[in-house]
UniProtKB/TrEMBL annotation:
Domain Reverse transcriptase: 143-367
InterPro entries attached to this UniProt entry: DNA/RNA_pol_sf, Rev_trsase/Diguanyl_cyclase, RT_dom
Superkingdom of the source species: Eukaryota
Keywords: Endonuclease, Hydrolase, Nuclease, Nucleotidyltransferase, RNA-directed DNA polymerase, Transferase
Name of the featured protein: Reverse transcriptase/endonuclease, putative
Pfam families to which the protein is assigned, alphabetical: RVT_1 (PF00078)
GO molecular function: endonuclease activity; RNA-directed DNA polymerase activity
Transmembrane segments: none
């Protein structure tokens, strides 16, 4: 039995036994709030403190919502003909040291995936002689596998449905993958980051380490006389971006085929208890999520920029700047049509405009047309 097969069997044994974890209860509220505050996410911390109950994904309502939030491609979307990269370069093999660093970098308050093996368990396991070496071998085997369906169990995630408002009518799906697979994806991210940054439009700032500079720029731009801002709201963005757009972006970046194929398998083989497959999107909660989403929407941003050169985007948080001579409604209409070409849906009801006297925000920076009530 290979290292990769042993790895799958280990997680399977935990999954079938008492180690499998159900949805976390409210007794972990303090840990979650602390984790959100450490990351500077005050909004999330306040949301947690409101003690909103999670929707049970195994309930009939939870199953309905789960399917609703993981839709297929939108009507009329034409998937591109993919031309996989010819880059046959082999990325550097994953080392024991990288495995140890990746595991140690995950906060202990992170929830575990379906097996129940969380960061605390893996931190103990990697101290055992031979475990880092075995994990490195398993990771390299998984990345290089010609037939990946044998590893399907590794791509299962535990779905958590978090209410987006106090009414409990709208939910944000969080996909909690196996902890050790997130460690693998942290390493894969380090292999891809530089190459993907070279591909992305400079206005996409989510992967920039100093992205707060972009927030300051956006705020300054919004305050300038004669300048208006329009915010675009993308409906269920992370869960609806077509995987074909992501793969097309990876091909355009000439990502090594071995990494490109792993990501394709990851997107195709993702599943949960009541979701046999996930037809679109990237999981909210995986280290690769932000990178893959930005790759998937890059052509949309590029074409949008050709029409409106002054814009900035942090994932699906998009802001377009324009002069008094341009009409905000026309901008939203054109952006809506363009987004459909790439499988995205603009929620026109959530688009705000300073030209209309509305408050526009970008990552917490808020502005309203001077003189507006």
């Amino acid at each position: 039995m290979t290292s990769g097969q042993c790895f799958v069997k280990l997680l399977g044994q935990c999954y079938m036994g008492d180690g499998r974890l159900s949805a976390p209860g409210k007794d972990r509220l303090a840990e979650r709030v602390e984790d959100a505050l450490v990351k500077g996410n005050c909004r999330r911390a306040m949301g947690l403190l409101s003690r909103r109950s999670l929707l049970n994904p195994d309930s009939p309502e939870g199953i309905r919502v789960a399917h609703e939030l993981h839709p297929g491609p939108i009507e009329g979307y034409e998937a591109p003909v993919l031309q996989p990269t010819e880059n046959m370069d082999l990325p550097a093999r994953i080392t024991e040291e990288e495995v140890v660093r990746a595991v140690k970098s995950m906060g202990l308050s992170k929830s575990p995936g379906p097996s129940g093996l969380g960061p605390a368990h893996w931190r103990v396991l990697i101290q055992a002689q031979g475990v880092p070496e075995a994990l490195a071998q398993a990771f390299n085997e998984i990345l290089g596998a010609a037939q990946r369906r044998g590893y399907r169990a590794l791509y299962e995630f535990r779905l958590v449905l978090i209410p987006k408002d106090e009414t409990g009518s709208r939910y944000r799906p969080i996909a909690i993958s196996e902890t050790i697979m997130m460690a693998l994806h942290k390493i894969v991210l380090s292999r891809l980051r530089t190459q993907i940054l070279a591909l992305l439009e400079t206005e996409q700032i989510a992967l920039h380490r100093m992205h707060m500079g972009g927030v300051r720029m956006a705020y300054t731009e919004m305050q300038a006389d004669g300048t208006h801002a329009v915010s675009l709201g993308i409906t269920n963005a992370f869960n609806s971006i077509p995987r074909e757009e992501i793969l097309r972006g990876l091909d355009q970046a000439s990502v090594p085929l071995i990494l490109r194929n792993h990501i394709e398998a990851f997107l195709q083989l993702r599943h949960a208890a009541h979701l046999d497959s996930v037809p679109c999107g990237v999981p909210q909660g995986d280290p690769l999520s932000m990178l893959l989403y930005c790759v998937g929407q890059n052509l949309f941003i590029k074409e949008l920029k050709e029409r409106y050169p002054r814009l900035i985007a942090y994932a699906d948080d998009i802001l377009i700047f324009h002069s008094d001579n341009s009409d905000a409604t026309g901008i939203v209409t054109e952006a809506t049509t363009l987004a459909k070409r790439y499988g995205l849906t603009v929620n026109t009801g959530k688009c705000q405009s300073t030209q209309r006297g509305q408050e526009v925000s970008f990552l917490g920076a808020r502005s309203r047309r001077r003189g507006s009530p």
